[in-house]
Amino acid sequence: MRISTELLRQRVDALDALDGVDTDALTGDAAAAWAGATAQARHALDTILAGLAQRIDAVSSADAGRFARSKGFSGASGLLSQVGELSPSDAGKLVALGNALADASVGVGAGGGAGSLGPDGTGGPALDGGASPTPHLPLEPRPRFPYLARAVHEGWLGTEKASIVRRTLEDLTIDPAEIEESLVDRARHRALAAVRRMCAEELARVDVAALEAREARNRKARYLSFVDEPGGMVGIHGRLDAASAAPVRAWIDTQVRAQMITEREVPDGERREAGQIAADALTTMARHCLGCEAPGLGVKTTIFVRVDKEALEAGVGLAQCDSVEGPISLSALRLMAVDAEILPAVMGGCSLPLDLGRAKRLFSPAQRIAIANRDGGCAKCGAPVARCDVHHIRWWSQGGRTDISNGVLLCVGCHHRLHDYGWGIEIDRGGRVWFIPPASVDPHRRRQPASPNRHAA
Q1: Distance between CA atoms of residues 333 and 305, nearest Å
Q2: Percent of the residues in the chain that have a pLDDT greater than 90, as a whole number
Q3: At 453, is the secondary structure helix, strand, or coil?
Q4: How many angstroms separate the CA atoms of 431 and 405, rounded?
Q5: CA-CA distance, 357 to 324, in Å (whole number)?
Q6: Among residues 294, 256, 262, 296, which one has the least CA distance to residue 277?
Q7: What are the residues facing 344 on neighbouring strands?
Q8: Which of 201, 243, 197, 194 lies closest to 222 in space, CA to CA?
Q9: How far apart, in whole angstroms, are the C-alpha atoms of residue 133 and residue 123?
Q10: Which helix (H) or strand (E) holds 390?
Q11: pLDDT value at residue 345
């Protein structure tokens, strides 16, 4: 990969006016704008770092002399983590991204000399204070993902989004060129969470075999470990595949939501934060399994899984689970059904009577299930279903009906913001929900769309 610092210079030049600015004098909008410009410079720097990471990885292969191992590291990411003072996760992302972006100049060093890492042709500054020769590697004909490489090198796709897209393209069993350009273009103007969801859905849509292979790899890679830390704390580290994480996450999220409501009555200095409640819930789960007769914190948890009736009958297709991001294969659904109590919402099947009008103020369990299935989480911010309440769009006190069409799923925070700060909600004839900000946020009160999690009614 041929290194260019031109984009970095442009990004840094754009920050010249920030030099000497007192942050206390900035408005919120100005601080946000400068933060965006600074992040652009960071992305440009990460692109250079990814190129160097790719080169370290290349000269660390068995055929090229095991450079990283000769320096006492198991691989390139470990070396990069130390010399760059990066987390192992960030170092691994840069190595992977650099390899995905490597072009025909692989084997040409960062300074332009064949087989070198520096302008003197010997490798530049070395870890031991000397110079380390690096072997010449054969040229590759083109980047593995040329459109993604262009987006990163030209600075209009950040490194984190590029890493998400790269992982999706690498997982495909079909030709990545079929969806590469589309994924990159759509990722450009989306938030990170939306990019992750989009890539997962696209992988499931075009290549179910790749999705199942990813799920199988994730099941093998799951782990949990405990680390005794200085000061007496115990660290918990781990990663779970979707089928394993769904019941754990759904149960803990439900306990957190239930306890957050009771915490409102606790004096300020004694209230637990959400993270503390989650830790206590995990402890409660373990104590229950050790012989406690009480069912956790007394709040029953249901895991919702949506699947088309035709797909379920044919045994081919995808399902959606509210406790995990992105689609899951039917094989993963069957695995969950064995290990956890789930409630499948079979689309197109029989339904319960759901529209109760003014007969009841509170939404029934059947209505809550239907609204959760429709909204997929908080309609405002996308928070998980387990953290949400059903909110009357037209308030009950103002004549609103307890009907599906007048209900929307909102997390506790968004629910309070609507009541406390003057946000409004509209629902159009197509079933789309819109949020109307107060004049203090937008003087024109232009409506904003709901979270992309939500489906039209």
Answers
A1: 8
A2: 18
A3: coil
A4: 8
A5: 33
A6: 256
A7: 305
A8: 243
A9: 6
A10: strand 388-392
A11: 55
Chain-centroid distance, C-alpha 407: 27
- 183 DSSP assignment: H
Helices within 59-120 (DSSP H only): 67-70, 76-83, 88-101
Helix, strand, or coil (residue 211):
helix
Question: Left (φ > 0), alpha (ψ -120 to 50) or beta: where does 375 sit?
Answer: alpha
Q: Which of 419, 386, 406 is nearest to 457 (CA)?
A: 406
- The SS3 assignment for 165 reads helix
pLDDT at 323: 66
Count of positions (residues) in the chain: 457
Structure tokens at 139: 């040229």
What is the reported pLDDT for 205?
A: 87
Q: Which domains does the chain have, with CATH numbers?
A: 6-215 (no CATH), 365-449 (1.10.30)
Report how far apart, in Å, the C-alpha atoms of 345 and of each of 4, 43, 102, 197, 349 are: 53, 42, 45, 21, 8
Q: Side-chain half-sphere of 99: how many Cα atoms within 13 Å? A: 17
Give alpha helix (H) positions in 4-75: 6-13, 28-58, 67-70
> Within its chain, how far is the Cα of 289 from the centroid?
31
- Structure tokens, 391: 């909110």
Q: What is the mean pLDDT of the chain?
A: 77
- Please tell me what DSSP assigns to residue 446: -
What CA–CA distance (Å, rounded) separates 65 from 243? 41
Give exposure, 320-337, as e/b (b: 16+ Cβ within 10 Å): bbbbbbbbbbbebbebbe
pLDDT reported for residue 337: 58
pLDDT band at 108 (very low <50, low <70, confident <90, very high): very low
